[in-house]
Write a structure and sequence with these properties.
Pfam families: TAL_FSA
Number of strands: 8
Low-confidence stretches: none
Shape: globular
CATH architecture: Alpha-Beta Barrel
Structural class: alpha/beta
CATH topology: TIM Barrel
InterPro entries: Aldolase_TIM, TAL/FSA, Transaldolase_3B, Transaldolase_3B/F6P_aldolase, Transaldolase_AS, TSA/FSA_arc/bac
Largest sheet: 8 strands, parallel, barrel
Organism: Geobacter pickeringii
Function: Transaldolase is important for the balance of metabolites in the pentose-phosphate pathway.
Number of helices: 11
CATH superfamily: Aldolase class I
Oligomer: single chain
CATH class: Alpha Beta
Enzyme class: transferase
Number of domains: 1
Strand order of the largest sheet: 1-2-3-4-5-6-7-8
Bound molecules: erythose-4-phosphate
Length: 214
């Protein structure tokens, strides 16, 4: 299973990368705004840290604008994946960019049918948002299971990025379902590594080590 890190904070990306956990990076306009830096500067810096797919999102709402933005983003680095919104215009842009050989990540997916449409339009990645569905009392993980079944039924090669991950259980469920990727906030990556019995075990070993004759 691949882990992407869901952040535009280059310090977090560096730290997670040093842990050997990062296969790719996803950003979005809100995360870029949170970084307080220029979009292109952040994306360029990320390409120097991680050698894997780096999603950068367009903000135009119509096809031609999306294509203009996408082509500029794709020039930054070979690893750039253009993130497009799950709208009819986004699908049209996805089809155009796929023909041009530019990789795409169709984002803001909330139903299995939206994922199927994105796959049909040629998306390289589809990003269903589990946390935001949970927030409105819907079963976020349920749609991951359904998308996986549909893609397997028909042999779609689009990779499923489980997005809007809020806790370690989301990652566990994504792994059990067999999703290709989870894009994970750094804080959740650290939570995944922690267990109170690990900490207690280290403490006991160190205490016992003091009794070993030196
Ligand atoms: C995915 O690519 C998005 O950046 C992200 O997972 C959205 O998560 P949120 O719902 O926590 O904002």
């Amino acid at each position: 299973m691949k882990f992407f890190i869901d952040t535009a904070d280059v310090n977090e990306i560096r730290e997670a990368h040093e842990l050997g956990l990062v296969d790719g990076v996803t950003t979005n306009p809100s995360l870029i705004a949170k970084s307080g830096r220029k979009f292109e500067d952040v994306i360029k810096e990320i390409t120097g840290i991680v050698d894997g797919p780096i999603s950068a999102e367009v903000v135009s709402l119509e096809h031609d604008g999306m294509i203009r933005e996408a082509e500029e983003l794709a020039k930054i680095h070979k690893n750039i994946v253009v993130k497009l919104p799950m709208t009819p215009e986004g699908l049209k842009a996805c089809a155009t960019l796929t023909k041009e050989g530019i990789k795409t990540n169709v984002t803001l997916i909330f139903t299995p049918m939206q994922a199927l449409l994105a796959a049909k339009a040629g998306a390289t990645y589809v990003s269903p948002f589990v946390g935001r569905l949970d927030d409105i009392s819907q079963d976020g993980m349920g749609i991951i299971d359904e998308i996986k079944t549909i893609f397997d039924n028909y042999g779609y090669t689009a990779e499923i990025i489980v997005a809007s991950v809020r806790n370690p259980v989301h990652v566990l469920d994504a792994a059990l379902i067999g999703a290709d990727i989870a894009t994970i906030p750094f804080s959740v990556m650290l939570q995944l590594a922690k267990h109170p019995l690990t900490d207690a075990g280290i403490e006991r070993f160190l205490k016992d080590w003091e009794k070993v004759p030196k």
